[in-house]
Amino acid sequence: MKSRRRSWIGLLFLLPALTVFGLFQWYPIFNNFLLAFQEYTPGMESTWIGFDNYVAVLGDERFYTALQNTFVYVGICLVIGFFVPIAVAIAISLLRRGKGFLRLAVYVPNIIPAIATYIIWGWIFNPQFGLLNQIGGWFGAEPLQWLVDKNLVLVSLALMGTWAGFGSTAVLYMASLTSISAEMYEAAELEGAGAWQRIRSITLPSLAPTISLMFILQLLATFQILQEPFVMTAGGPNDASLSVMLLSYQYAFNNVEFGKAGALGSLLFLMLMGLSFYYVRKSGLAEKKGA
Amino acid sequence: MADTEIRGILSPNEYRRPQFRVVYFLCVALAFVLALVMLYPVLWVFLSAVKTPAEIYRNPPTLFPSVADWENFAQAWKSYEIPRMFLNTLIVFLGFIVSRLTVVTMASYALSRLDVPFRNGIYLIILSTLALPTFAYLIPSYLVIKDLGLYNSWWALWVPAGASAFQILIVKNFFDGIPRELSEASRMDGANELRILWSVILPLSRPVLAAISIFSFLEVWNNFFWQHLIFNDPATWTMPVMLYFKSFTIGGNPPINVQLAGMFMSLIPPLVIFLLFQRNITNGVTMTGIKD
To answer: Which helix (H) or strand (E) holds B207?
Structure first.
């Protein structure tokens, strides 16, 4: 079946893909590392300034604030958001009816455009008439300043992020749950394993590959947090929700310091690359290549 | 539903035992609260969209509007330029999906069926972009768009649409599963490769093409950040960009009830798509997620 004649056709078929991947995936990365060594304003001649941008970033107090905030945010998201989809998927799988409806309900926030989510949560967080303080009020809690309190703002953003995003993860877990064979549960039950024991020794181990993947994906996603503080708090109050990506955005678009943004971007990039490669290896995506 | 036929963690017998009934009741209660938490905000948007601003800000709040004011929707229709926004977004999506499917299916076909020199190397180069953290190179991508002169034009979203390794991965795997005899047979009949792709492979690939189209629509409808960076001129605005400018930038914001009415209208297309294609979407999540 092999014919040399067709090999140039194959390359021709790949040409559009190679062009767009080169232009919009590889070149920006490459360029970003160059940018980090330049003083650059769009439309003007750039000058090479060596490591000055890195020195400036590492000497910027806000960089450390942003780094700390980002790590804290990632941590809070793990605590709040990581276990929720697992628990929800298992609980839903125990139900005898209404599974289909719940799968839909859980997924709905994923459908809602990000901006709409921010508007909705702007109301939920509102100190005077927001939903959270109303509910707190029923239990006699003092009203909280969700987005204005510097100790609370990252928790609030993590709550919102979890609400908006956990549905697709839960759907994935639900799919993995249905692939666990009934015989295994049957056998465990005959040997006298209680329900809780079955969850611990059959369900969770079967989910383990999915769980470790979701863990990496969540780390990757939360490290890059940008939109939420950009829209909801502008990094405030007093930089309490300033993230690394937001700082990079502010360097570029508020201060017109694209070189500094490039330096910060490449720092974050290198940090995340390790995680990413681990994800690609772990997920088995790369192994499928030859087949 | 036939959920009860297949046993899960619990056996049918156990569901009848008293101690499991308690657990089961807790699960049902949790599910109920969950559904409420997920769906109530959408309902709130709709109910508040027909209230007066004073009533939205009233404490304690009302659930249902005391007087339904449908005028808000008419105002939002004008203020958000809904017809133009929907049209703009639709055009952006159509260009996006045509560009994406062309690039992705051609590349996948070459990788799956044609003899390409360094095929594994090329595939690896494409796949390795899966590992690139997307937001981390937002700013250099913005500069590329500027350098290419695509700033403020829909081409800025159309041209890069095909640079998506996930789609190539999924489509190539799907093509690999189509029996080779089919494409070989029409090759014997003298059909050229483009013809084989178009009239043999693509018709068989409808499920995967549909899933990609649906996810791409949601992507375009949702992706405000990139669009607000590259569409600066109001003439190029799409629905997500308009929503952002009307609700989160200072000046010219409509009253809260009109904002909510505008927002509710922006929720309708993705919700309709979701309800129509829910099976493709939930299957697609697993398909695009990972193998298990």
So the answer is: helix B206-222
